[in-house]
Amino acid sequence: KGVFAKAENLCVSLMRPGQTPEERRREFIESFFWCFTGGAKTDFTKEDLADLHDKIMAGHVPEEDRKFWNKYSLKLVRFLADARLFVTRGAVIGYAERLRPDTVTAEEKARGNQIAIHFLATCRAMHTEGTRILWGHNSFTFTSPEALRHFAELDLNHRKGIKGVTFRIIAQFYDDKKRRHRLHHTYHQSLRKDHQLPVNMRVNEQTYARGGFRCYSWSQIVDFLAALRPPFDPKHDRKQIRPRLLPALESLHIDLVNFTADKLPTFGNDMHNMASHELGCSLNELYVTGLPIDDPGVKASAELTGLLRDEGLYMTGVPAYVQTKRGVLPLSGHPICARVIRAYKSLRVGSLGASTVPIDDELSDSEDTDFDALDGSGLDAHHSHIPTMPAAPAQEGHPTSHREDKVIWKRVPISRNSGERRWVEFCRSSGYPIEPPADKNGNDDDEEDEDSISICPCCGEPHPGTFLDQLLDEAD
């Protein structure tokens, strides 16, 4: 009875312009008492269902009507739960914490509450089905390591079904003097002028602590990754391995905000220990936006690839957000620079003298080929220690290629915020996408180099076979 009363009140509150409450209640009866049967043929008409609705609301349900209710009650509850009552239009930002105005956009701030959380208290069936849909059909964005750690309070049965999350990591700046620090307009092509950075004032203490202008940036990435480690559970058996915070996590999206090249210092080995050892080889896909193009940024990119399994997909892009005094502002940017991590290992001869993929004739002529130099960047995180972790699963249904032994197919998003993907062919030796060269007539020229690399949409430069060779050439 409580389910029907609250569902009917919700439907009346969501009336369309020009629609009367009686018309909305009629739609409620037709949809919630007729469509939930899944088109099953019954002896009940719409008038009978409307009469049944009145009897249920009055508390008088005959025995023959109870059979109908017992048969289709679970279907009705699932239909109510699937009716966008527990699924948001965007991502669920944070967990068990109040939204900070300086970490969300104006659109996210005005979006308000979209989840009918009070429906979970109507009955046990609604609580069970609604909770399952709430945690299984929504996407989650975390803006602080604390919110991610609080996620451990959620039952493991709900956490183990989450396969992808988003980290919005905003660099925080501190200073003990009132000085203006600006974000240069070259941070993103859509910025027409420099913006003043939000700086948190720090008390100037008479201690030996380092003062001046400080930032919490690279260490914040480490704190986010550390929150993914197995949470403490006093009831867990010590003889068993504790599951991680998100045991089924396969895809990670990291949005770096205000990570400007001229404000951030270098960092130590904490990121390497966390990405390559604590959480190494755990993801199939990693997408990072906002990495600065400088020495610390290149080092961070190399360290973060340690999170990926062999043949995992690594994508980078221009900054997606910028934080100013007005809050977080979204930025445009569709190009994605993608490459495959450590896909060259399938070309290596195994310890038993056999290879899973035929080796190219040019490689088989040399017995002392350095396969470690075949990686696309030369700066990717390598996992030479045992045990050997499984590679990322191959994606099925890709187009055919004339060199299946030297390429790997991945589905890459067509733009930053698009869910649509397209098939892209990557070279196993370099890890970068392959675009077959065209002759003067516009046809593919098979006589040219098969491993020609496309122009990177992030930096606008064509990448060679190995990034390490490029660095060595520049050094010479």
What would you say about this model in short?
By secondary structure, the chain is of the alpha/beta class. It has helices at residues 2-13, 21-33, 46-58, 63-82, 106-111, 124-136, 145-150, 156-159, 218-226, 270-278, 295-304, 361-364, 467-475, and strands at 92-93, 140-142, 164-170, 172-175, 182-183, 195-196, 199-201, 214-216, 251-257, 283-289, 308-317, 321-324, 327-330, 337-341, 407-413, 421-427.
How would you describe this structure to a colleague?
By secondary structure, the chain is an alpha/beta fold. The chain folds into three domains: 2-82, no CATH class; 92-340, no CATH class; 343-379 and 394-476, no CATH class. The protein is 27% helix and 16% strand. The chain has 13 helices and 16 strands. The protein has helices at residues 2-13, 21-33, 46-58, 63-82, 106-111, 124-136, 145-150, 156-159, 218-226, 270-278, 295-304, 361-364, 467-475; strands spanning 92-93, 140-142, 164-170, 172-175, 182-183, 195-196, 199-201, 214-216, 251-257, 283-289, 308-317, 321-324, 327-330, 337-341, 407-413, 421-427. It has a seven-stranded mixed sheet with strand order 1-2-3-9-10-11-14. Strands 7-4-8 form a three-stranded mixed sheet. Strand 15 and strand 16 (421-427) form a beta hairpin. Helix 1 packs across helix 2 (21-33). The longest helix is centred in the first third of the chain and has 20 residues, at 63-82. The radius of gyration is 28 Å and the shape is globular. The termini are far apart.
